[in-house]
Amino acid sequence: MRFARISLVRLLLVSLSFAMAVPAARAEGRIRIAEQFGIVYLLLNVVRDQQLIEQEGRKLGVDVKVDWARLSGGAAINDALLSGAIDIAGAGVGPLITVWDRTYGRQNVRGVASLGSLPYYLVSNNPKIRTIADFTDKDRIALPAVGVSVQSRVLQYAAARQWGDGAFDRLDKWTQTMAHPDAAAAIIAGGTEITGHFGTPPFQEQELAANPNAHIVLDSYDVLGGPSSATVLYTTEKFRNENPKTYRAFVLALARAADFVKRQPEAAADTYLRVNQSKTDKKLLVSIITDPKVNFSIAPQNTLGLAQFMQRVGAVRHKANSWKDYFFDDPALGQGS
């Protein structure tokens, strides 16, 4: 509950600051972007550090002003987007599918691009927990947003595979909303009811390196059947239609950032450290960026299975037949899935 209150306070502060800075009716040339924690947001870190949106905007004849905010959890991100506090939301595929379904036929929220495919690990510091079937009432699994985040949805997907679709939410009662830095600290220190953390890089790698009891219980790639986009960006149809040049500048900036990360992983790691004012070991960051399982691409990858699972168990009403149902059509995304 404490972390939920913190997220709500952050959302209110973000809404207030943007409301004071931005008039109700504004001309094209301003974009408000919300991100979360972890190296999965590396492309946005590069975009911000190199001012790529501003550069691409000038090429299109628009002087773009960019505002950045950081929230924790897909629920807070979705609330900020629907309240008009932000224009671009950064969260997992689960929150995207949730808000796409919720706004179907109204605000029509859809995906803008992927931020890359990275495996998410459910890490436990309890030696007795080797599979998801080993969690008990004494355990709590930290994740960014109970019932909404991509980690929560992947855990439900894993539960459905273990016990059947009717028991997809079997583990929900043991999940707890917590920001990744706090959850990682709990796993590393031990001695609390938090015995599991379904996290994101680099926090999961830090846990595995710092606590000898920490080990991987679940790999998101195993659940989803291979590499898949974990974190994505999305917006409303209204923003996209009313700000075509700003939107185009944003997508082009993302594509440039993806190319930069692939060509210069060490410089990309430096960017992460600088933008986030992080003390994470640079070698660890470079190892994540260059991991063969990691692909920093803006084209969504292997997202449809999770979307269809969510509809099958009643988490959302609308069934997606293609990834293009919940992503805006854009040639820059290429052959997504």
Task: Please provide a written account of the structure.
44% of the residues lie in helices and 14% in strands. It is of the alpha/beta class. The chain has two domains: 30-118 and 228-333, 3-Layer(aba) Sandwich (D-Maltodextrin-Binding Protein, domain 2); 121-224, D-Maltodextrin-Binding Protein, domain 2, CATH 3.40.190. A five-stranded mixed β-sheet has the order 2-1-3-10-4, with helices on both faces. A five-stranded mixed β-sheet has the order 7-6-8-5-9. Helix 4 (74-82) runs parallel beside helix 5. It is globular.
The CATH fourth-level homologous superfamily of the largest domain: Periplasmic binding protein-like II
Q: Regarding CATH, which class of the largest domain? A: Alpha Beta
* CATH topology tier name of the largest domain: D-Maltodextrin-Binding Protein, domain 2
Helix percent band: 40-55%
Instruction: Pick out the low-confidence regions.
Output: 1-25
Which series of helices and strands comes N to C? HEHHEHEHEEEHEHEHEHEHHHHH
Count every helix, treating DSSP H or I runs of 4 or more residues as helices: 14
Provide the spatial order of strands within the biggest beta sheet. Answer: 2-1-3-10-4
Count of distinct strands: 10
Structural class: alpha/beta
Keywords: Signal
Organism: Pandoraea anhela
Pfam families: NMT1_2 (PF13379)
Protein name: Nitrate ABC transporter substrate-binding protein
Brief write-up:
By secondary structure, the chain is of the alpha/beta class.
Structural topology:
Elements: H1 2-21, E1 30-35, H2 42-50, H3 52-59, E2 65-70, H4 74-82, E3 88-92, H5 93-102, E4 110-114, E5 121-124, E6 140-143, H6 150-163, E7 175-177, H7 180-189, E8 194-198, H8 203-210, E9 215-219, H9 220-224, E10 231-235, H10 237-242, H11 244-263, H12 265-276, H13 282-289, H14 304-312
Parallel strand pairs: 1-2, 1-3, 6-7, 6-8
Antiparallel strand pairs: 3-10, 4-10, 5-8, 5-9
Helix pairs in contact: 1-4, 2-11, 2-12, 3-11, 4-5, 7-8, 11-12, 12-13
